[in-house]
Amino acid sequence: MNVYRFLQRASKIVGGSFDAIRAWKDLDNPTKNQINQLLGNLCPIEFRGEIVRIGSKRDGGYVVPSEIYGVDVCFSPGVGPTCDFEMELASAGIKSFCCDGSIKKLPREHHLISFESKYLSAYPRENYLTLESWVNSKLKSEEKACLQMDIEGDEWEILSSSSPRFLARFDVLVIEFHDFHKLFSHRYLSLYSSVLEKLLSAFTVIDFNPNNYGFIVTPNFRKWIPSCFEMTFLNINLLERSQESLSKRNRFNRSLKKRNDKYWFKYPVPW
Predict the structure, then answer these.
(1) Which residues make beta-bridge pairs with 97?
(2) Residue 251 falls within a domain, yes or no?
């Protein structure tokens, strides 16, 4: 990273942290407690199953449970410059359906990977896909599926508009969440809380990675909050453990399993 980029990113981190400190001071205690609870819900369980890493060593690679090799189909909205994740699934015989309106064709092609040059939308409109209609048009009733989503901030609205019953059809979710530094706003805190509550009603978190392409803020110099992070969820029905075990979350700083080598610093986790 050159000096200018480093100083630019350092300025963004410091500025965002001061904004967060001011916002935190203006919040009432019930709202602060809600934020702390939300951050706690991001913490993964101490998963005893096998975890593997699929895809690129940089952006485009994800930490997933080995159960992903039991699915028939991967739905992957948001492709960008790499489809290494989908290519590795294809090598295991798993087909993928991809969509991304920012590109005209896939970076690499495979007969098991289908592509549409369209964005996702929370509601039906021309030249856009809704997640539910897209999945329902491709997924057969007997097939098992996973969802890998990286759509640059639109994930919150898309997931908010998706029904819990529909989301529970997936065995594994791998989602990159953006703009999390906005949670000090009541509007975004409500949105983020409702989306994560919906996901956690059917899934449990098995991996959390701050994305060091984004930045971090700290509201009180004790909690570090990443603006962008990746979470891997496993359907609760696939876990061979009791609800009591699910509620026991492992509170320790996990080292990053993925790192964009273009940026040398690692980010801490928010608990």
Answers:
(1) 75, 114
(2) no
Does 225 reside within a domain? yes
Strands (E), 3-77: 51-55, 61-65, 73-77
Residue type at position 144: K
Q: How many separate domains does the chain show?
A: 1
Each residue's pLDDT tens digit, 6-49: 677 777 777 777 788 888 888 999 999 999 999 999 999 888 88
The CATH number given to whatever domain includes residue 187 is 3.40.50
Determine how β-strand 170-177 pairs with β-strand 229-235.
Answer: antiparallel
Own/partner contacts of 30-38, CB < 8 Å, gap of 24 or more, are 31/186, 31/189, 34/189, 34/193, 35/183, 35/184, 35/189, 35/219, 36/223, 38/183, 38/189, 38/192, 38/193, 38/196
Which domain, by its residues, includes 117?
3-246
Return the DSSP state at 70: G
Taking Cα atoms as reference points, which of 193, 207, 209, 211 lies closest to residue 250? 207
